[in-house]
Amino acid sequence: MSAGSVVIGCFRDPAGGVLVAGNVIVVVDVVRATTTAVTAVAQGRRCFTAPSVAAALRRAARLDRPLLAGEIDGAIPAGFELNNSPAAIADRTDVERPLVLVSSSGTPLIHAAALSGTVYLGSLRNARYLGLWLAGREPRVAIVAAASRGAFREEDRVCCALVAGELLDAGYAPEDDATAALVHRWRAASPDAWLVSDSVRYLRATGQVADLDFILAHQEDLPDVFQLHDGEVITVPAGVALPA
Hints:
By secondary structure, the protein is α/β, with parallel strands linked by helices.
């Protein structure tokens, strides 16, 4: 008997089939929203995600000395201090300032997922730890990538496959052939296999290579789980170790 089931999808429509009530949803946006959020929380900073600039400003108004960061269609919104950049967040020392983060695709997905179920954030920093931690705790897990310009990007395919792979090892069943095929294709890919992504080309073309270098240098280095709670990303100590 299966321990549970897992499905992988790409978020292009808020009415998408994987976003149904009762799901545990893992949101993935490696370049860059989920990486930025978990990096902020890992450094001891509070982090709130917002689905829009207006929502970010409303959240910031309720916080003490908030740090507004993000991008919409590649541009930093007026009045924001930072881009949606894990490297920039990691370089800052003002961790007492809560981060309010907005992005073109990742944070709207986090918001939409929170309307349907419990939300966890997946990145290449914690993907396998998250899969190990979820195994046996939740009977059905949906892993949903944020489409970037309508595309399911390679970096997110890798991350989704890493989370799902640990669940399959624990006896979970893939809900469809596409999920099984994606895990088979990307789980054992080399750490730089996703460098063919349009996301990588964008970072290079716009002089944001620091984020690419940061993501490549920080893989499987956060053994914690990151959950959304009332709009805030919080840490759940995982207490799991990766298999040798």
